Amino acid sequence: MKTNLLTTLSLLLLSVSLAFAGPGTIRGVIKDAKTKDALIGATIMIEGTQIGAAADVEGNFTLANVPVGTHKVIISFVSYKTKEIPNVRVESGNTTVIDTELDEEGTALQEVVVRGSRATNTEVAVISEIKQMKPIAVGISAQQIQKSQDRDAAAAIRRVPGVSIVDNRFVMIRGLGSRYNAVLINDVITPSSEVDTRAFSFDLVPSNIIDRMIVYKSGSAESPGDFAGGVIKIYTKRRPDANFTEAAATIGYRGNTTFQNVQTHDRSGLNFLGLWGKDQTLSSAFPKRSADFNALGSEDRAAFGNLFKNSWGLQSKTVNPDMRFALNLGRRFDIGNVNVSNITNINYSLTNQNSKIGLNLYQNGLVANDVFEKYTDSNYSRQARIGVLHNWTFRFSPVFNLEWKTLFNQLGNTETVVRDGQKVVDGYDVRNYSERFENRSIVTTQVSGDHKFGDLTKLNWITGFGYTGRWEPDWKRIGYQRTTGATSADGQLAPFQAIAPIDPNPINLGRFFSKLNERVLTLAVNGEHAFGNPTDREPNKIRFGIYGERKDRDYSAHFYGYTNVGNASSILQGNIGSIFTPQNVTGLDGGLTVKDGTKDLDSYNGINNYYAAYVSGDLNFGSKAILTLGFRGEYNNQQLHSTVVNEKKELVNNIVFIPLPSLNFTYKLSEKQNLRFAYSSTLNRAEFRELAPFSYFDFNLLADIRGNTALKTAKIQNIDAKWELYPTANELISVTAFYKHFKDPIETFLLPTGNGLAYTFINASAAKTYGVELEIRKGFEQSSSRFFQNLTVVANASLIKSSVDLGASVKGPDLSGATQDYDLTGITDKKRPMQNQSPYLVNAGLYYAEPNSGWQWNILYNVFGQRIFAVGNMNNPTVYEMPRNVVDLNISKKFRNNLEIRLGIQDLLNQNVRFSQDFNHDGKIGSDVTSKTASADQDVRKFKRGSYFTLTAAYTFGKRTIIP
User: Fold this and answer.
1) What fold is seen in the domain 314-957?
2) pTM for this one?
3) CA-CA distance, 793 to 781, in Å (whole number)?
4) Which end of the chain, N or C, is less surrounded by CB atoms within 10 Å?
């Protein structure tokens, strides 16, 4: 089927391409006639058309898709005489070269008004921006994202050196997890999209709204101090070059999922929009405290239980292909003397994922692979996503711009897990169900202004509001079991019976409700003043600014469990759809009732006030050396309260002021070659959830996660050195080395409990990580081969090593939530690699673009080294996520500059996602994971996601100016 699909599509695209004559290309170089310097930003237009370009940092330009024929080319630049070149002949499939020079005007200009804007979303623009930055940074442009056909920011950013992705949505930089990375959208810190950790879910940002992403690897006074891996700045599209309307539709096929039969559960309401019905929310009639609820009689509690909708039954369905739709609008117009522009993007997707997951737990005694429990999970999830970008720009004058940017994303995930297996040692067959719905919403809206005061001083300000919501309405879980091999009187296997514990627990039989609301108010002011002649290429500058943020979070959770009154075996042996009818939930003898398993600490309120001020300045030592010194001071007050009815209990009140110096030094070996050195002091704060002494059960991992009120702020010292070479405007070669030292790093810790897995967060004594990164971006424009002229090679690789020293003891919560000291002697390894740190990362890509025919294709490769997924101890070994080789293939074809057809194949190799346990505690996973020998390791989870095929049709209504 896959082969037929590829063959049919290829023949279709080939036949259409032959039906139209291919256009040609004009390229060249624009220079100053006297100095021979490149005229950066010179405008090149073809008379009578909207085809145009701007010269890059070396004066180069390219006009693609030029109609066959003879044209007049007009070249202009501020303070230079406009040049007209008539009779420029363009032939189908060929390139016409223009190398010319402009003469300066003889008279000075009295006033210059520039309405155009600098392109920021191209590969050339991003490379130029990174080259001119004082901190060490890497980036990816919208142009490269479009070539790769990455669907969201998570897929796109893994192309950046030193970056890898966890769970297809969380970013790791230089082997450091999400908690060590700061994320900003349009220069405003994003709220965390997760409950349990500090993390931003990058899959919430669709790729077609991104202008560029810049990842800062070294610190600076202007950047937030709370990072160690990197500061990721996502810039959304600002304003169009001309009016346009684009529409795109995508259909997707995933192996193991599409057209397969799956089990799912019902959610009322607008589920296809990621929303849920009111009948799934917790009634306000329920008593607030579990003690008050459980004091009621069993019949009264059963009456409350019947307020829950009996929606446990599962349905079989055949999975339809994935669907995605996008509408992009761009408008420019004038209101009086004000130039106004708008970009609006609307995205919708409905996607599916089905996996068969092998899950094993082991006894971890003297023999490897001694299975304690073994399961197979049938995991089906359906995601509905809505995304809206709405940006306005008002250009009042060349010295004042005003922008209003709004981003909304909503993601609803309906997940059904059917778990079959055995408790091998205990002698039970097991069948468990998890029926979960999760909604995540994020909104950011910002108003910003840019001001210029003469030629030397600039000022900008941003005020913003952010909101994050996360809801889990009515997460239902039930566990059945029977004695292995047991039969009934008729000789058939005995029926499964649901487990109804005396006291509610999160595993066996119950319903869980949670909601999170987080609001963030921000205000930032940044200024810059240049000294000396403003036309100097590198004038001395001083930068200064303030940043203020107020964050409020409310989190609440409730858990209710079913229990039997007397002997209710006949009810508990029923199927999942019939057990919880009102006839069974009576509270009478032989029936079921409900208990409240919620603890007072399962809800909390958090307030965080964060204020920062900074100043930095450039010192130029001749024309080659630039030193940037910076100082940032950050004040943070973090408060956490538990609110029970009218009683408010303070759990945390941390007030910290930390000075953060930074240094960035650049030495220009030549115009195309730099040496950089950077030092910065940064920090890492605990998040609300990591502090809150609330226990959360992860069904998929069979583990509890709880917070620790004793966490301290970690402090990090960062050193970076980089050599970079820019052979041409769109080429780059760089080598970066880095070293980081952590004091009191925050790490995950497996509590030494007797029952199951329970994780918390602790401060280790110290940690360090160091490594080297290589990046290459190479084109072949000077090649005599037309094929190589259109080819670009992009590759990056990282080698990283880290270690954590836990010390002799750590502070963490016990089962009641109270803090205690844990002596680590004999409990766990006191030294190990940092969690989520990969020893190596490799990304590579071949990009081919044929400007005359409109064909593009690329092949992309990604792999990471084994990394710690779950920290272990002596009784429960550490679990590693194993490497996967990922290959993506993308092909696209443009027709007459209006219609584009794209074929994408993601994860072509479809290798296993595999998590393995380090049974022999040697810090690595061996190749033999089935042996019983003491040196063997053990697979814990293993599954395949399935290769993913997408076919997209995108159409542009009307023409627009081509910007290279």
Assistant:
1) Maltoporin; Chain A (2.40.170)
2) 0.79
3) 12
4) N
